[in-house]
UniProtKB/TrEMBL annotation:
Keywords: Metal-binding, Zinc, Zinc-finger. This is RING-type domain-containing protein. Residues 16-37 form the RING-type domain. One of its GO terms (molecular function) is zinc ion binding. SUPFAM superfamilies: RING/U-box (SSF57850).
Amino acid sequence: MEKYDEEKRIECTLLCGHRSCFECLNKLPNKNCPTCRKAFTNEQIIKLFKLILKQFSLEIALFQPEIVENKIEKK
């Protein structure tokens, strides 16, 4: 398995409590946790939205200067 990279991957947890990225879990030929080998289904993969929201907030922050400039130009 590849090392987790927050920018490229969405971190997920399984019902057993172990974490991995969504892409890595979907690529597993046998749906067993890579840490404890407990079986899981795709429906049991839980995306950790805290990290998704953090990334979304950063993307918005990147566009704020343009939004501010547009408001100034309209006045």
